[in-house]
Amino acid sequence: MRELKILYQAVRKGVKGFALDQAAAITYYTFFSIFPLMLGVMAAVGHFFQSDAAQARLYEILANTLPGSADLVRENLDTVVDLRGALGLIGAAGLLWSASSGFGAITRAVNRAIGAERQQSYVAWKLRYVLMTLVLSILIVLSVGLTASIGILANIDLELLKRIGLEPGLAGRLAASSAGVVSAFLIFALIYKVTPYIETRWRQVLPGAVLATVAFELGKHGFLVYVGRVAQLEAVYGSLSSIIVLLLWLYFSALVLVFGAEYNIVRWRTRAEERDSAPGKS
Length: 282
Hints:
Blueprint: H1 2-16, H2 19-48, H3 52-65, H4 70-82, H5 84-114, H6 122-156, H7 158-163, H8 168-194, H9 202-230, H10 233-237, H11 241-276
Helix pairs in contact: 1-11, 2-4, 2-5, 2-6, 2-11, 3-4, 3-6, 5-6, 5-11, 6-8, 8-9, 9-11
């Protein structure tokens, strides 16, 4: 009951604090960062994991992370990969630029939620945005490698899987799903830990990361139902409906991220007030 009250207060605080507008800004910058980011990840996956299984796992991660929009992203990535000899430098430059803009929007939103003001120089934070993107790329590559390895091992030892009651295909899907949940949690936790302009502790940010991960995973299923059965996007947007679906999902994900930050700060302030008002405190 106490946690529900804190959640309600966090949502109320976020709405009053322009969380919806902040999420829209994150959506705008993230939309332009997806393709350069995934192009860089594909290059890394191709360099470190020379197998079709690794690329297949990358596309599974895309489908798991971008429900309803994975085909759109995949088709565009395939087109860019075919031209990567001419667009390699452009892709790298776009990746760095997206790091400074996309994570800049996320940083501003998180710090607005906690009420912190920037103290370091603009150049220093630019470098941090680039570092955040590199860390995110590494997490995705590691997730691809882990799930691909599990899938390969599952296909090798079929008898072992059968003895414990698992089908090889099911084992691969469970591995991909588990890796997706862990990756989402790590990304939320790292964002809440490193983006604030003030020093934060892990115990302050982990509750919001857990909440954001749960909302993100549950939201996937509800979003697919909404797009498939409720929203009539093709009747309104025609050929642009795939892009609209992607923007809607990015906006939902940004809302989850912002309200996770709001939850962290409201929860911490509530606990601080309870400690100050406890018996024996003057």
